[in-house]
């Protein structure tokens, strides 16, 4: 009896030790996954789009990302919804899959989402139309249209390459540090001439593709550029994109060519409304119903803080950020 008790006790101890090891190993694996989760890039292989009806919609959605104006631009073969010939991929590069380029891979998971600019929760379809109406200066797609369904199908498909809430490099815009000085359109002009003119032209009007159905290099201002109030019209927002992606033949993935100050200066020049006109400027005044939801680089008052429109637009931004934090508010940019 005593012998059996000893054997039973030993068995219990062995099981306990094994379980402890397994638990420790599991925690180690989990910690390792968490540590490395953000250390990789997501690659989307378009050849894996399924060969079925859903796949047809996904393929069309990808085509719409790459050749938006061809299909639904001012002379679109499937509808005339856009007011200019820019393509989604001009900003969301590689059909929304390029890291640090307003990446769209997790968009399907992230919507519905509250948007401060509109002051309400938007569906993904509403967010698509937000882009159609503002950067593209167009009219909204019908929610049940073939095109809207294709956009949503494509976003759902690319989202299937990542698990919900996973982190990966380039999912969000690259970080930027703010200098103690304001962004300068004057310095930005010199940098624009040095780095940007060869593609976008001295007049900022970009270059069409061969059949002029869309742009290889989009216009940065003027009648066919993006509207005020668009994301690219905010200097911090554009500077983060520029830092990660431009000049396209000098920057490499995760290794910027422009400094933070240079990116801010170029964005300041591109978005200098005193010298660069934009379409439908009146739309600039009908966003952000709650002033506390305004991005700090949005340049139209009223504001909840003490800073001018000029400082909100060009900076320096650190005093604004410090003021907001002191008030217990979360600065958005």
UniProtKB/TrEMBL annotation:
<keyword id="KW-0732">Signal</keyword>
<dbReference type="InterPro" id="IPR051459">
    <property type="entry name" value="Cytochrome_c-type_DH"/>
</dbReference>
<dbReference type="InterPro" id="IPR009056">
    <property type="entry name" value="Cyt_c-like_dom"/>
</dbReference>
<protein>
    <submittedName>
        <fullName>Thiosulfate dehydrogenase</fullName>
    </submittedName>
</protein>
<keyword id="KW-0349">Heme</keyword>
<dbReference type="GO" id="GO:0020037">
    <property type="term" value="F:heme binding"/>
</dbReference>
<feature type="domain" description="Cytochrome c">
    <location>
        <begin position="183"/>
        <end position="274"/>
    </location>
</feature>
<dbReference type="Pfam" id="PF00034">
    <property type="entry name" value="Cytochrom_C"/>
</dbReference>
<dbReference type="GO" id="GO:0046872">
    <property type="term" value="F:metal ion binding"/>
</dbReference>
<dbReference type="InterPro" id="IPR036909">
    <property type="entry name" value="Cyt_c-like_dom_sf"/>
</dbReference>
<dbReference type="GO" id="GO:0009055">
    <property type="term" value="F:electron transfer activity"/>
</dbReference>
<keyword id="KW-0479">Metal-binding</keyword>
<keyword id="KW-0408">Iron</keyword>
<dbReference type="Pfam" id="PF21342">
    <property type="entry name" value="SoxA-TsdA_cyt-c"/>
</dbReference>
<feature type="signal peptide">
    <location>
        <begin position="1"/>
        <end position="26"/>
    </location>
</feature>
